[in-house]
Design a protein that fits this description.
heterodimer, A: about 240 residues, mainly alpha, 7 helices, B: about 400 residues, Helix Hairpins, 3 domains, six-stranded mixed beta sheet, five-stranded antiparallel beta sheet, 11 helices, about 45% helix, extended, binds adenosine-5'-triphosphate, binds magnesium ion
């Protein structure tokens, strides 16, 4: 009988990991698509992303439900406890990533109503880095690969650097032609969202580290401190 | 053979008993076709392992809990996955996870397409099929990588777009010249003569482009039919140098063919080999500075590797690339090469991989001023590939370039 319990428990942990993988897949797709939508000015794709976000939210509640049930009924400890805790935390980050992608999609809809701005190359580059970070960190979670997680954690500054240079570029653009201020501001927040997606990737990387080694990451992550953007009220409210 | 005589006495008895048992089991064996089957063993996923191994594409079998039970080498290589790993740890693309779950539930077969990873990504077509009768054993997940196919499709579309674009340029020039002759230049004899000469040049350019396109499609048509006949590399080089001499004289470039007195015979289509020599020598002349020297060297080597060394690895500081490499081929075959060297301004390393791509020119504007269409090397590459030969380039900026082809010798 006890053997049965053990087996069922590991199956439940598996189900939790499967759920995270599925959420990760959804979030990854949302990020890749949202970048494509801005760059290609694809209204249909943007609408699709917005619709699909509800699914990520549902999955997150499902992960939460499973995690709570596991904690309440099984009292997991040590590695098992870490597995439940990290799944829970990661699902939160993935849900936020989904929101940020959705926010990019919404801004795409607005941007598509004004003339194109020849500055999306920088957005595309940033987006590619963020998508790659997300892919790497999700792979590192799936494989329990601390090394890969560390590389994600270290490379976040790349996105930050891109963000800062894009910010300056957009500012010059706005000053040269005041009519572009509104679309440029939207692009700025798109860039900001991508940067925050990168931040969530590093959070997940920290979780992977904790999951595998049992220790929190201690070192201070090197990052560009002078963040020039104002807080975006709409994305903070999870538009 | 062991006979009764050379077997130790002590063992004779046991040997007899064994023989007896063997005979008895033989008799007991059922006659084929009339037998009642022994109680059938439950099939397992592992039974499918030989089948999986035989599949040329990535394939996996998943057990009902969603873990990998059997995985073939193709899939292993691609995703670095192992048996017992959860499938969702390998692929998390939602449509495929959904298809797997649904197949476990309703035993239906599904085919989906998905792109994995950031742009351009890998395109897969994936079939998910349940296994087992009654009690579900698991599901089979079979992949077909369509990345190359989709890229080829994209290239074909690009090709049509490029070809039309290249044709439109001289056509636009032509109509503008015609308008000028019909209008402003109608009454000026000298202008008219000049514009007519320009029109002739544009018409020439279009004809060359169409000739090249036709040549290319002919070569592509029989690219998979091995050439028969014999071709002499030395003769091809001399003829090509001769027909390049007007252009060379005009540009004050000297072309020198360095070949022994003997023929160097390869198995090949004489006209196509002549075309290879022609295109390479034309390029060398075209991209040489005034007063420059172009040398064409023909040589032979004991095998493929030595030919590659001799034909394309001479300059220490040059960038180099193999634009086409032949299959390993038979052992002990001699190879011959033709190497065309110029003292032009060379090609930057980052451009080398694109040589041989249709319509590729390093500097578009300069190329069109020199009348190039960017098909010459594409033709060379196709001919070389049909002949199972190789094409190598070495180039150093401000020093020069060397283009070389090598082929198996005729016996
Ligand atoms: N010997 C060379 N030196 C420098 N650049 C070269 C040389 N040969 C080829 N190239 C570069 O490669 C490009 C492609 O060559 P290719 O022979 O295919 O086209 P082309 O000579 O421009 O036109 P075409 O041969 O169709 O009339 C050229 O435009 C040139 O930029
Ligand atoms: Mg040429």
């Amino acid at each position: 009988m006890p053997e049965h319990t053990v087996k069922a428990f590991s199956e439940e942990l598996d189900a939790l990991a499967n759920e995270i993988a599925r959420m990760g897949g959804l979030a990854e797709q949302a990020v890749i698509d949202s970048i494509a939508a801005v760059v290609r000015r694809d209204t249909r794709l943007a609408n699709e992303i917005i619709e699909r976000d509800a699914q990520i939210d549902r999955e997150q509640r499902e992960v939460e439900r499973r995690a709570i049930k596991l904690m309440a009924l099984r009292h997991p400890f040590a590695a098992d406890l870490r597995q439940v805790l990290t799944a829970w935390r990661i699902s939160g980050d993935l849900e936020r990533i989904g929101d940020l992608a959705k926010n990019i999609a919404k801004r795409t809809l607005v941007l598509n109503q004004s003339d194109p701005i020849q500055i999306t190359k920088g957005i595309e580059r940033m987006g590619k880095i963020a998508a790659f970070q997300l892919k790497t960190v999700l792979d590192s979670y799936a494989r329990g690969d601390v090394q890969a997680a560390l590389s994600v954690w270290m490379h976040d500054e790349d996105i930050d650097a891109h963000y800062n240079s894009l910010f300056r570029e957009l500012l010059t653009y706005m000053m040269e032609d005041p009519r572009t201020i509104s679309p440029c501001a939207h692009l700025l927040f798109v860039a900001k969202n991508i940067e925050r997606i990168g931040d969530h990737c590093t959070n997940i990387a920290e979780m992977v580290h904790y999951l595998v080694t049992g220790e929190e990451m201690s070192a201070e992550r090197p990052r560009a401190k002078d963040d020039p953007t104002p807080v975006d009220p709409s994305s903070a409210a999870g538009v | 053979m062991a006979t009764e005589a050379n077997i130790p006495k002590a063992q004779r008895g046991s040997l007899l008993r064994r023989a007896e048992r063997a005979v008895r089991t033989l008799w007991a064996r059922p006659v084929p076709g009339t037998a009642t089957p022994a109680s059938p063993r439950e099939p397992t996923l592992q039974d499918y392992e030989p089948l999986m191994r035989a599949l040329p594409d990535p394939a996996m079998l998943l057990d009902p809990t969603g873990r990998i039970a059997v995985i073939n080498d193709e899939a292993r290589k691609r995703w670095a996955a192992e048996p017992w790993v959860r499938f969702s740890a390998v692929l998390r693309h939602p449509p495929i996870l959904d298809a797997v779950q649904a197949a476990m539930r309703d035993h239906g077969v599904r085919t989906i397409e998905f792109v994995s990873g950031p742009d351009p990504g890998e395109h897969f077509r994936c079939t998910v099929a349940p296994l087992g009768f009654g009690a579900p054993l698991g599901v089979a997940v079979l992949f077909r990588d369509q990345t190359a196919q989709i890229a080829a499709e994209r290239m074909r579309v690009d090709f049509v777009a490029n070809a039309s674009h290249e044709l439109r340029t001289p056509l636009t020039a032509l109509s503008m010249l015609i308008e000028t002759i019909a209008g402003p230049a109608r009454d000026n004899e000298a202008d008219r003569a000049r514009f007519l000469r320009m029109m002739l040049a544009q018409a020439d350019r279009m004809r060359r482009l169409i000739d090249d396109l036709l040549a290319l499609s002919r070569i592509e048509l029989d690219e998979h039919i091995p050439p028969s006949g014999l071709a002499d590399l030395c003769a091809a080089a001399r003829e090509a140098a001769d027909s390049a001499s007007p252009m060379a004289a005009q540009r004050d470039v000297r072309v020198e063919v360095r070949a022994g007195a003997h023929e160097v015979m390869i198995v090949g289509d004489r006209f196509q080999i002549a075309q290879v020599a022609q295109n390479l020598i034309d390029n060398a002349v075209k991209f040489s500075p005034s007063g420059g020297l172009v040398t064409v060297e023909i040589g032979a080597a004991a095998n493929r590797e030595e030919a590659m060394e001799a034909a394309g690895r001479r300059w220490r500081n040059a960038g180099r690339i193999s634009l086409h490499t032949p299959p390993p081929g038979a052992l002990g075959k001699r190879f011959a090469y033709l190497r065309v060297v110029d003292a032009g301004h060379g090609i930057a390393i980052r451009h080398l991989p694109r040589l041989g791509e249709r319509f590729f020119r390093v500097e578009r504007e300069k190329g069109s001023e020199r009348g190039g269409t960017g098909l010459g090397l594409a033709i060379v590459k196709h001919i070389v590939s049909r002949h199972r030969g190789g094409l190598l380039v070495e180039s150093e900026l401000d020093v020069g370039s060397a283009f070389a082809v090598y082929f198996e010798c005729a016996d």
